[in-house]
Amino acid sequence: MYQDQLRVIFALSIMACSGAGCARNVPISPSAVSQLLMTHLAQHCSEQSISIRAGVVGAIKAQHALSWFNDRILADRGFRQVSVSSGSSDRHGELSYQDKGTTFDVAWRQIDLPGIDTRDRLTVRACIFVPSKIEIIDSAYDNDGINGRVLFRERTRLSLFGQRIHDAGFLNSSDLLEDFEYVAELHKDDSGQWIIRSLNAK
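Predicted structure:
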């Protein structure tokens, strides 16, 4: 439905400028739009929760997950510890890391009860998938040159943390990459900067 609406708007824009001497004006380049959308989607990525529980995967795999997280993530200087707290039976905290210029966060919790392996658990909440490419399908801009609509496709990839957790064997490969289509409403503000007013999935 969004695609049909956008094509109608696009067609009306062409009809309005069909007279002599009227050229279609594109106030922002497709590459600039792609970069704007890429940055926005990365900064507003959808977080996923992954929980590895001994009662589901077995005590050995849960212990392996806890050891892996401590040795390969918490001990990695590429992941900055924002906060960490400990209780009698659990630890939890937040990490941040850089991935191609964007800062991402990871919230985590560990339950490791001595002598009760069946209660071991590692839970993380993070952006597992992030945008890898933006494909512009169609676009239309108002005559005022400060408002526009863009139909585009987002191709995704594993984030740095998502790749780590996948390589460690804790992410089901069948749950991997998807493509999504959106319609973005663009606006050029008083300072001349283009911003995204709204973003709607098709």
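Summary: Residues 59-74 form the longest helix (16 residues).
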